[in-house]
């Protein structure tokens, strides 16, 4: 039962069943077997052949326990077994020479990741253990009513260092002063 619950997240290349390298849940293996039989091919041939998987008449397999959305997911897996469904992860490229606030200088242009968006601006991680603030007035060369219209959490941005206040642990940043402004 634990395997069935985790199977959608596991891939076992070269497993006993060719479906072990897909996100098809074990309780649906029999259904995929029926699909392959109806197409006159073994399951191993169906898994990984987009043309064959595209020939499956999904409406034929809808039942009380398996709906059309699940069937679409199964076919997507059969077309690309072993695929990673997560989006590509991008991270900001922090500078090696900037590790703490004391390394920051006014005018530096850095890459960072937006960590929070507030009514007054956005906080950006630039790799110095203290997020900097891009005040709403520094988000763009135009009037910005809502910072969420300009930046989103997780977005990678280029920022220019405007001010560094080490005693108060504050970093003032600008997106409009950096190349590649939004």
How would you characterize the overall build of this protein?
The chain has helices at residues 2-6, 29-39, 43-46, 50-54, 68-79; strands at 109-118, 121-125, 132-135, 156-165, 170-174. The chain folds into two domains: 2-79, Tex RuvX-like domain-like (DNA polymerase, domain 1, Orthogonal Bundle), CATH 1.10.150.310; 101-174, Nucleic acid-binding proteins (OB fold (Dihydrolipoamide Acetyltransferase, E2P), Beta Barrel). Strands 1-2-3-5-4 form a five-stranded mixed barrel. It has 182 residues and is of the alpha+beta class. Helices cover 20% and strands 19% of the residues.
Short structural description:
This protein is of the alpha+beta class and 182 residues long. It has five helices and five strands; from the N terminus they run H-H-H-H-H-E-E-E-E-E. The protein has helices spanning 2-6, 29-39, 43-46, 50-54, 68-79; strands at residues 109-118, 121-125, 132-135, 156-165, 170-174.
Order of helices and strands: HHHHHEEEEE
Return residue spans where pLDDT drops below 50 for at least 5 consecutive residues: none
What would the average pLDDT be, to the nearest integer? 89
The structural class is alpha+beta
Radius of gyration of CA atoms, rounded to a whole number: 25 Å
CATH architecture of the largest domain: Orthogonal Bundle
Which CATH C-level class of the largest domain is it?
Mainly Alpha
- Name the beta content range: 15-25%
Note the total helix count: 5
Side by side, the strands of the main sheet go 1-2-3-5-4
CATH superfamily name of the largest domain?
A: Tex RuvX-like domain-like
- Number of E-state strands: 5
Q: Report how far apart the termini are.
A: 50 Å
The main sheet comes to:
5 strands, mixed, barrel
Count structural domains. Answer: 2
What spatial form do the alpha-carbon principal axes imply?
elongated
Helix content: 10-25%
CATH topology of the largest domain: DNA polymerase, domain 1
